Amino acid sequence: MRFDIMTLFPEMVMNGLETSIIGRAVKNKILEIEAWNIRDYAFNKHSSVDDYPYGGGAGMLMQAEPVYQTYLAIQEKAALPEGKRPRVIYLFPRKPFNQKMAEDFAKEDELVLLCGHYEGIDERVLEEIVTDYVSAGDYVLTGGELPAMMIVDAVSRLIPVFCIMMYLPNLRVFRTISWNIRSIPDRRSGTTGRFHQSFYPVIMPM
Questions:
Q1: How many degrees, rounded to 5, is the angle at CA 179 between CA 176 and CA 185?
Q2: Distance (Å, whole) CA 76 – CA 68
Q3: pLDDT, tens digit, for every residue of 147-167?
Q4: In 3-state terms, what secondary structure has residue 144?
Q5: Can you tell me the distance from the alpha carbon of 131 to that of 85, in angstroms, rounded to the nearest whole number?
Q6: Chain centroid, CA 192 distance in Å
Q7: Three-state secondary structure call for residue 195
Q8: Ramachandran class of 101: left when φ > 0, alpha when ψ lies in -120 to 50, beta otherwise
Q9: Which side of the chain, N or C, has fewer Cβ within a 10 Å radius?
Q10: What is the reported pLDDT for 182?
């Protein structure tokens, strides 16, 4: 599965996702993750992507064109069937993310996550490219990077090959027979099933 993350802070995203189990999955080519710097698609010499909203008002908005050009670059690289557009998730205070959403997103071959900043993003480009509006919860963050990383983690855990390759090889029988007055059950006692159930994660609901 592939994740493309549109952001103003690609280093922040990749530093978080290139570690631990997600990082090992990328290294083993189970996942593909790429962070796209929206500033690279700005059309001014200062690479600025913000502007005042039409009609005035407080705060700044991210401009439509750099976001759209970033999306077009991702779409051009996407290994999707001809005519199919990638699913684009905008991290925005609307419907809170949950496990059911993660299961739905895990059915896709590719997900694009759009991280907003400032007071938001020009509504015109959102109407053009966004398919899902997802919130991380009932609190305020400075941007969409942390929620994007959270979604990548939650969705990745639902990919069967990710679970098999990343979890099962790392489960080992403990070297010590007892720990903190707790002993490994005797295989002959008939309690082994309960022991395995306690320590082996459920890979995927059937």
A1: 75
A2: 12
A3: 999 999 999 999 887 766 655
A4: coil
A5: 10
A6: 36
A7: helix
A8: alpha
A9: C
A10: 64
